[in-house]
Amino acid sequence: MSDPVGVAPGAVEHRFGEYGGQFVPETLMPALDELERAWVQAREDARFRSELALLLRDYAGRPTPLYQARRLSERLGRAVYLKREDLNHTGSHKLNNALGQCLLARRMGKRRIIAETGAGQHGVATATACALLDLDCVIYMGEQDTIRQRPNVQRMRLLGAEVRPVTAGARTLKEATSQAIRDWVASVADTHYVIGSVVGPAPYPAMVRDLQRVIGDEARAQILEREGRLPERVIACVGGGSNALGIFTAFLDDPEVQLVGVEAGGEGIDTPRHGAPLTVGGRPGILHGARSAVMQDEEGQIVEAHSISAGLDYPGTGPQHAHLRDTGRARYVAVTDREALDAFAQLTRLEGIIPALETAHAIAWTLARGEGELDLICLSGRGDKDLAEVLALEEQGGAGRPGDVGRTRDAGTPAAGAQDDAQLSAGERAAGGSRTDARHE
Amino acid sequence: MLAMSERIAAAFSRPGRSAALMPYLMAGYPTMADSVEIGRACVEAGADILELGVPYSDPLADGPVIHEAATGALAAGASLSGVLEVARALAPSVPVVLMCYANMVFAPGAHAFAQRLARTGAAGLIVPDLPLEESAPVRDACDAAGIALVPLLAPTSTPERMREIGARARGFLYTVSVVGTTGERAALSDGFAEVVASAKASTEVPVAIGFGIATPEHAAQAAAAGADGVIVGTRLVRAAGEEHPAEAVGTVVGQLAAALRTDR
């Protein structure tokens, strides 16, 4: 049985270079201290570790398989491995963190759980852990996301969670997170807030990473066993960035392994409608309690993100990602909605694996790379939740032509991006427009 | 550079009052021009210090009324420059304390922000998502600019935190009366008198209490519990949404002021 919690000896990191911190109202500060102390104790407690390890094995189904994608590898002329987090119980990597945090909450005597969710994967995972551990569960979800991820809303309700649609702003993940924090400010005595990604005030970014690093710890051992070597590239999608840090962490000290985080390029990073703060760069900002890469205007107002994928539709990202970018240890790129939709269709037909639209961003970037011998992709979640939306777009002629290999964009090449956009046909622009309309019905 | 702190201190010791009255208004709600008029109406009706909120996209410490007012102000085109013009217009007649979320303070750099604020004649700055651990650069910048950086204390703050926060307070100590976001409550929370007492024991600056104070009765209770100042926000922002904003806010401020008068 593999060790479920990667213990970084010593303190829980509050800062990653200039990023991170605790920018929250004073009311929450004692709760963050309490959480950090409880986490440090729990992760060093053999009983807690073994309970989590058993749940991950017998309940979640870990270790998840490492699968060499046969037809994808054949097409690209190199070995492409998929770390199958979609086969984790509830259909994504999110359960790793939700189980750990809900066990911790129970240990702290907190019987009420709140969480934010974008695509609904974290909400479903948290609702599942709460059902298992008999905890009360309230999930905040942007109203827009309750529409585009309806199956996950139904699953959360079946699991006994109360789903509270959030109607502020663009009604997506940013507002859901803000509302969950406001709930916590008022309920902190008896409530634990299960943040779903490597974002938020310390200790969350480090704690969530340590609960997710099981992905990379497993994958590194698996690929060494299969190939006798490390991958050239490890590729994962990045919204808040928990599946990416989950798989990157085991490889951080392997300098020969390139780490690639793929953000939401939305309608293009040369437009305002994207979710790619790491790729675009610019002045760091503070969002949801931490300093990191943030989409903001001159005066510091946070701007709305856009992505076809609800889980990547977020103007911020985890502080450690910003630090990994600045130090050059990882690089961050963006792929557009269209490219992600194409990759979604391609992986489905090539491998019989329907990826989440979030994950499809990582697939798209890999599809467009010609070079290399050995890639490892974190297949962070399954795409059943996205079927209705993708099929609706396909009917409008917006997606799903196999063979239409995605156009991708690297950080620092805005000119190439602009050129790509100029190459979009009128029909493709129209499809983009109707996508937007569909989302606002 | 002590002038602004002295101005705030003087506002807490005006004769004939059991506590200073500190109305909050959301700049730009419903319009910037209204905000200046609302501020003047507050002063005429008895405000001792004005708290001027900067509309922000993600106000984590605010309840739905102030959040919506901020959203409305931003939709109407509110900008920091506009807010600072409101501060400049009001500062000659009352000490103005800006309430602004951390990202907007750090956007131009804390130093540049504090200098710009000081040039309007404003006296202080409150940053609701800047706890002690993150506050040093902003406090240094404010000290250098002659702006009082007012920290917040919560009912959940441990005695140790209270001492540390109280020792670093400038101008006054903003004590949050409830575990929650801004908003009106039917009654003050049970433990609020204890919170006021612990806050006063932790600092040498005046203690103002806010979050959830909405009626003249609440204001009188807060003063009776020993608060040096009473902050009223959501009730007034709600009044600013009425047909004649300045008149509506002025009326409520007048009622609150009457409840704090000792020379009746």
Outline:
The complex is a heterodimer of chains A (about 450) and B (about 260). Helix content of chain A is about 45%, strand content about 15%.
Question: Tags for this entry?
Answer:
heterodimer, A: 441 residues, alpha/beta, 7-stranded mixed beta sheet, globular, disordered C terminus, B: alpha/beta, TIM Barrel, 9-stranded parallel beta sheet
Number of helices of chain B: 12
CA radius of gyration of chain B: 16 Å
CATH topology of chain B: TIM Barrel
Mean of all residue-level pLDDT scores of chain B: 95
CATH classification class of chain B: Alpha Beta
Overall mean pLDDT of chain A: 89
Spatial arrangement of strands, main beta sheet of chain B: 5-4-3-2-1-9-8-7-6
The CATH homologous superfamily of chain B: Aldolase class I
Largest sheet of chain A: 7 strands, mixed
Shape estimate of chain B: globular
Low-confidence stretches of chain B: none
Helix content of chain B: 40-55%
Q: What oligomeric assembly is this protein in? A: heterodimer
Strand coverage percent of chain A: 15-25%
Helix content of chain A: 40-55%
Distance between the termini of chain B: 37 Å
CATH-derived architecture of chain B:
Alpha-Beta Barrel
Low-confidence stretches of chain A: 399-441
Structural class of chain B: alpha/beta
Folded structure, characterized:
The complex is a heterodimer of chains A (441) and B (264). Chain A is an alpha/beta fold. Helix content of chain A is 44%, strand content 16%. Chain A has 18 helices and 15 strands. In chain A, strand 9 (233-237), helix 11 (242-248) and strand 10 form a beta-alpha-beta unit. Chain A is globular. The relative contact order of chain A is 0.14. The model of chain A is unreliable at 399-441 (pLDDT under 50). With 264 residues, chain B is of the alpha/beta class. Chain B is 46% helix and 13% strand. In chain B, helix 2 (32-44) runs parallel beside helix 4 and helix 11 (234-240) packs antiparallel against helix 12. Chain B is globular and about 40 Å long. Classes of the chains: A alpha/beta (441), B alpha/beta (264).
